[in-house]
Every structure is written in C-alpha cells, then in structure tokens.
C-alpha cells in the first residue's frame, strides 16, 4: 500500500483544516527549494495540534549561517515532534545532523539533488544511503523513477510538478525582501514565439507538470496542499 | 603590481590551437575535457582522445603551466569508462581532476587514484560542513558555485585549511539558475532557455540576474577573502573564451592593485564597458 503525504509550507499551517489532513498519514512541512520557508518549532507545534500523525521536515541547500540557525531550530522541532524525518539536499546538513544525533534521525535525500543522484551508479547509491543514514529518495520525474535500479532504496513520488530549475533571484521578492508571498501560489509561465509550451513558478523554482501514475516500486506519494492535492491524486490514479 | 598578490587565471580549452594560444598569452592554468566523458557543459569544446590531452599536458608543462581534466558528471553508464580515463591520465601525469559527482569521487577513492581533486562549480557545496564532507573524498580545491555570494563563500572557506578556491568572471559567465541542478535546455550553450522572453499573467517575464556592478563587487570581495584563481570556462566559441580571458586579465591586474572597493568598481566597470562593444559584435556575428 502506498503511503500518502501532504506537503505544506509554514505560512499555510495556520489555515490548515482537519479535513485537509484527512487521508494523509504524514505531513511534509517546509520547502526543498527556499531557505525562507523553513519551519519553526511553533509551526510544528501548530501542525501537531491540528492532527498531523507523522512529520517530514523539508529543507533546501543552506549556506553556513542559515545552516547553523536551522540546526538549532531542528533541535527544538525534535523536542516537539520526536521521530520527525528530515528531507535534505545539503550534504553539509546531512553530515551535521548525523554527527549531532548519531544517525537516529531518519534522513531523506530530497529534491532537487535527488534528480541529480538518480543518474549515478546504483551500487554507489545503496552504499551512500546506508553509510549516511538516508532512508528514502524523493523524486518527481516518472522516467527517472522508472529507470532507477536501486532496488534497496525506497522512493517517494511528488505531484503535481516535476522539478526543472531553481533560482537564487526569487521573483516573488519585493526590493530584495521576502514576505513569503509565494506560499501556496503557482504562476503559469508561457513561452513566446518561436518557442511554445508552459511551465510553472512555485517559490523560487521552475517546474513542468507531472501527472503520471506512480511508477512501479513507489512507496509514498506526496501532494502539495496548494495545488489541489485531491484533484491531482485522483487524476494521477494514486 | 605585486606578483605575489596577483590572482591566477585558469582557462578551459578544447583544441591544440587554443592550447598554443593561451600558453603564448601567458595563462597560469588550463583545463580540458574529452568528448567521451560527459561534463554537463553544453556546447563545450573538448579534445577527442586521452593521447591528445597528454600531448597538451607535455606542452603545458614545458611552460610550467598546470593542466587539469574536467570530468564533472559521470552517470552510471559512463562511470567505468570515466574512471579508466582518469586513471590513464593520472598515470600520464595530469595535474588534477575537476569532478562534480560523488559517485565518481567515491570510485576514484576506492581505487586509490591519487591526484589533486577539484570540486566542480556544478557541485552544491555551500557551507563548511559540506566542504568537510567533500574533503573526506580528497578534495583540496573548490570551484565556488556561481550562486554563492562572497560573504557565504568566506563563511564556507573559514577554517578550511589548505583548501584553495576558484571563481568565475561572473558578469560574463553566470547562470541565473543553480547550474548544477538545472534541467532547462540550453541548446548547446548558444540559446540559453533562461535568456528567453516569457509571459506570466499576460506580462513580460524574464529570469532575473544580478547586474554587472554587483558581480564585480563580489569579485573584489572574493579576492579579499583569499580566492586564488579566476576561471574562464569553455564556451561554444573560441573567440568568446579569448575575449573573456582578455577581460579577466585586466580584472586580475586591477585586483592586484591597492584599490578600495569603490575605486576597483569604477575602474572595473570601465574595463567592462570597453569589452561590451566586442561582445556585442561577436554575438551579432554568430
């Protein structure tokens, strides 16, 4: 049976209703792409009060100062929600958390670096996962997921977008200041002649649509609250 | 200008002609790839065989110039071949290897291949913990990710004893998206997706970039935090690389001067302005 998870950003927690959580055994909280969407311990407490059964904390790439700050925050989060998983793209964060908690925190190799790792040698990946306490690989590309041969590695499959690129110049910022105005928003971007086709801006990243059925071997599907999770779940047949 | 304070310039080459040109021009370091080893860079010019690379190494060493090999990415179907090529090049005396993939670093470490490992700018190494992780794989030098600001680079490099750093001339060579994690189509580097015009909610939308002044101010700070190498990448056209090299040389001379940041910026923008015309001509011609 495929586990279902709901993905929310911190600004969306306040408006989350119990019925939004119905049918989801787990909540992903934070962002794999933006450091301004990291959750606080208060966000986690609010989520717990609303009935989240299991928690996965999402994190992006983190330069030195945000990394140091997040490690303190994560310590507080673990006190509120012991057993929380940590999805990461930053190998420095992986090293720091494993050193701090003796590999007791379940780690997930998150988007966007997972997209890069799945093309690597699978024997290496299985060893890398085992050595670094990585329990699951987060992916949103049906072709890459289908051709992935790392049988010992569990996969999660994200809907309804497939990652394309991530920018450091967030288009949602106003005069360089982030007010988290991107939370829950998806902007459709259209190419102009001679090119055609659409893609999407969410947070600081660009995506294509992903409506594929979950490839064989997927153990978990993840749906963002803000993209019509139930609708896409139904369309994808997940 | 003090020789001691001068940054080195490293240039990516893809042919004997370019090798000879840059050696004649007094380049400090060179790097190259070969076509059978994918290196992520779309449209990059490369050598065809290991023998050509080793011949280039001979010529470079005669001038006291180091030659590195760029392997960057080695997807599973290319891993064994890439390792074999690197082993052959290391036996042949290449000065180091530029690598992005952890799987490749791991394979070379397991095979005890000893050379200088340079972490590619395409890697996502942006903090001291990540640098320490890669140092465990023998990385001694890091080409800073383009998106890393000088203050963030300083925080990463602080305490990293013996780790050297490289930076690109970013007002000329820069990706607005994290290039190591970008899956947009750049069409061989000649028509980057990110430079196109788009529409969002009926309005024009372009992928943002920093201005040249910001990039140059960042370059000044990179030098002040101890970044030793200014890097010129392998672009689709040899004339473009030569132009960037010539501009880089002038920037290096300015950086070696005892200028304040404001003074450097004023002079650097003038240099940039004089080169803008040439870049425009080159773009129109191609």
Walk me through the structure.
With 238 residues, chain A is an alpha/beta fold. Chain A has a single domain (3-163, 206-236), classed as Copper homeostasis (CutC) domain (TIM Barrel, Alpha-Beta Barrel), CATH 3.20.20. In chain A, 31% of the residues lie in helices and 26% in strands. Chain A has an eight-stranded parallel barrel with strand order 1-2-3-4-5-6-7-12. Chain A has a four-stranded antiparallel beta sheet with strand order 8-11-10-9, with no helix packed on it. In chain A, helix 4 links the parallel strand 3 (55-58) and strand 4 (85-88). In chain A, helix 3 packs parallel to helix 4 (64-80). The longest helix of chain A has 17 residues, at 64-80. Chain A is globular and about 55 Å long. Residues 228-238 of chain A have low confidence and may be disordered. With 286 residues, chain B is an alpha/beta fold. Chain B has one domain: TIM Barrel (Alpha-Beta Barrel), CATH 3.20.20.70. Helix content of chain B is 41%, strand content 15%. Chain B contains nine helices and ten strands. Chain B has helices at 16-24, 50-62, 79-91, 102-110, 128-135, 150-157, 212-224, 238-256, 261-285; strands at residues 8-13, 29-32, 66-72, 96-99, 117-119, 139-143, 164-168, 198-200, 203-205, 229-232. In chain B, strand 4, helix 4 (102-110) and strand 5 form a beta-alpha-beta unit. In chain B, helix 3 (79-91) packs across helix 4. Chain B is globular, with a radius of gyration of 19 Å. Chain B starts with 7 loop residues before the first strand and ends with a helix. The mean pLDDT of chain B is 92. The interface between A and B is large, with 44 and 46 residues.
């Amino acid at each position: 049976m495929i586990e279902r998870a709901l993905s929310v950003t911190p600004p969306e927690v306040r408006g989350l209703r119990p019925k939004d959580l119905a049918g989801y055994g787990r909540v992903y909280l934070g962002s794999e792409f933006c450091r301004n969407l990291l959750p606080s311990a208060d966000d986690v407490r609010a989520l717990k009060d609303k009935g989240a059964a299991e928690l996965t904390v999402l994190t992006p790439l983190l330069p030195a100062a945000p990394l140091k700050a997040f490690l303190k925050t994560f310590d507080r989060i673990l006190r509120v929600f012991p057993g929380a998983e940590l999805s990461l793209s930053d190998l420095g964060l992986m090293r720091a958390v494993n050193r701090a908690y003796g590999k007791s925190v379940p780690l997930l190799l998150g988007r966007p670096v997972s997209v890069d790792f799945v093309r690597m040698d699978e024997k290496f990946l299985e060893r890398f996962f085992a050595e670094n306490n990585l329990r699951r690989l987060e992916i949103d590309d049906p072709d890459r997921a289908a051709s992935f041969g790392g049988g010992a590695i569990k996969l999660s499959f994200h809907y309804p977008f497939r990652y394309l690129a991530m920018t450091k110049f967030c288009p949602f910022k106003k005069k360089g200041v982030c007010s988290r105005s991107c939370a829950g928003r998806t902007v459709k971007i259209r190419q102009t002649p001679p090119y055609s086709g659409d893609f999407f801006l969410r947070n600081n990243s660009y995506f294509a649509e992903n409506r594929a059925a979950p490839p064989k071997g997927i153990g978990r599907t993840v749906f963002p609250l803000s993209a019509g999770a139930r609708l896409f779940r139904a369309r994808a047949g997940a | 200008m003090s020789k001691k304070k001068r940054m080195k310039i490293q240039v990516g080459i893809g042919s004997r002609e370019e090798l000879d040109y840059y050696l004649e021009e007094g380049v400090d370091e060179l790097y190259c790839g070969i076509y059978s080893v994918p290196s992520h860079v779309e449209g990059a010019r490369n050598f065809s065989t290991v023998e050509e690379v080793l011949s280039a190494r001979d010529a470079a060493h005669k001038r006291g110039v180091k030659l590195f090999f760029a392997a960057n990415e080695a997807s599973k179907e290319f891993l064994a071949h890439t390792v074999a090529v690197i082993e052959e090049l290391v036996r042949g005396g290449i000065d180091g290897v530029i690598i992005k993939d952890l799987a490749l670093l791991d394979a070379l470490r397991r095979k005890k291949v000893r050379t200088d490992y340079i972490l590619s700018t395409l890697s996502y190494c942006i903090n001291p913990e990540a640098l320490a992780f890669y140092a465990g794989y023998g990385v001694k030098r890091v080409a800073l990710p383009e998106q890393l600001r000088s203050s963030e680079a300083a925080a990463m490099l602080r305490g990293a004893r013996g780790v050297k750093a490289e930076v690109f001339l970013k007002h000329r060579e820069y990706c607005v998206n994290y290039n190591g994690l970008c899956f947009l189509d750049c069409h061989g580097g000649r028509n980057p997706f990110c430079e196109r015009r788009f529409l969002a909610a009926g309005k024009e939308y372009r992928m943002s970039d920093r201005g040249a002044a910001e990039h140059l101010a960042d370059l000044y700070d990179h030098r002040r935090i101890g970044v030793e190498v200014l890097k010129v990448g392998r672009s689709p056209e040899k004339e473009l690389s030569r132009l960037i090299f010539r501009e880089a040389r002038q920037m290096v001379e300015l950086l070696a001067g005892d200028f304040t940041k404001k003074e450097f910026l004023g002079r650097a923008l003038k240099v940039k302005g004089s080169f803008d015309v040439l870049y425009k001509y080159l773009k129109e011609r191609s």
